[in-house]
């Protein structure tokens, strides 16, 4: 069965990367959630996509220059049509809730713009604290960081993110010890998905929001995909 990961939770309807978005993704039928992690000024793991808070909150400034206390005061639902207020969660906030569910968790390390020295260690420490090693996939566009994660924690799955066609991605994945790949959906034609999965490399394309694309991935037996609309995906899966 093709698994469904809610991108930043249920971002099509709820404010991205917030607890309400993650909880609604689960209610909508997601098997897992995807979220983005960065480090605050006081080295707390916070769940937010952009290097600044400007787009997704009512504040301004750079995430790494704000303390957790400052970040927690911001409203991450300021432009939402469904929710009045939502705070920026820490990764611990998410783990605390998620550990009592059967959801999978894809943690994207947002460490391309800023490397966030020490972030890999902190994320792995938290995964171990909650005993979530089997349920977490670490992904990043920074593939060096994933190699480092594998060195620190070979038991935790890693998945390189990429947006353009990659030559023989299953060979590449094996070379960096990744058990899966997370390509942009356009970089994941059926033959690539089939070749990867025959080689034992799971494919989870992002961000899949169109019905036709979802149907293609269900039909080819893709391991999973990441979508803003887990409700639509779950309904289509029932029909397929
Ligand atoms: O993990 C898939 C996707 O989230 C990667 O791109 O920019 O939405 O974080 P982005
Ligand atoms: Ca992401």
TrEMBL record:
InterPro entries: GP_PDE_dom, PLC-like_Pdiesterase_TIM-brl. One of its GO terms (biological process) is lipid metabolic process. GO terms for molecular function: phosphoric diester hydrolase activity. Residues 2-237 form the GP-PDE domain. Transmembrane segments: none annotated. SUPFAM superfamilies: PLC-like phosphodiesterases. It holds the Pfam family GDPD. It comes from the Bacteria. This is GP-PDE domain-containing protein.
């Amino acid at each position: 069965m093709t698994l469904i990961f809610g991108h930043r939770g249920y971002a099509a309807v709820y404010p991205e990367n917030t607890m309400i978005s993650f909880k609604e993704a689960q209610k909508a039928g997601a098997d897992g959630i995807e979220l983005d992690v960065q480090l605050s000024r006081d080295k707390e793991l916070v769940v937010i996509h952009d290097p600044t808070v400007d787009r997704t909150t009512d504040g301004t400034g750079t995430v790494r220059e704000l303390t957790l206390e400052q970040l927690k005061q911001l409203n991450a639902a300021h432009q939402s049509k469904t929710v009045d207020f939502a705070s920026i969660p820490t990764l611990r906030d998410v783990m605390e809730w998620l550990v009592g569910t059967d959801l999978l968790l894809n943690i994207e390390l947002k460490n391309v713009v800023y490397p966030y020295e020490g972030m890999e260690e902190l994320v792995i420490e938290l995964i171990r604290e909650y005993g979530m090693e089997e349920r977490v996939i670490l992904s990043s566009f920074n593939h060096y960081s994933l190699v480092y994660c594998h060195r620190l924690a070979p038991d935790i799955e890693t998945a390189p993110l990429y947006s353009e066609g990659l030559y023989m991605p299953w060979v590449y994945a094996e070379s960096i010890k990744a058990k899966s790949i997370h390509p942009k959906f356009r970089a994941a034609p059926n033959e690539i998905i089939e070749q990867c999965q025959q080689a034992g490399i799971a494919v989870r394309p992002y961000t899949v929001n169109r019905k036709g694309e979802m149907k293609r991935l269900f039909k080819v037996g893709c391991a999973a995909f990441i979508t803003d609309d887990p409700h639509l995906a779950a309904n289509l899966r029932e029909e397929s």
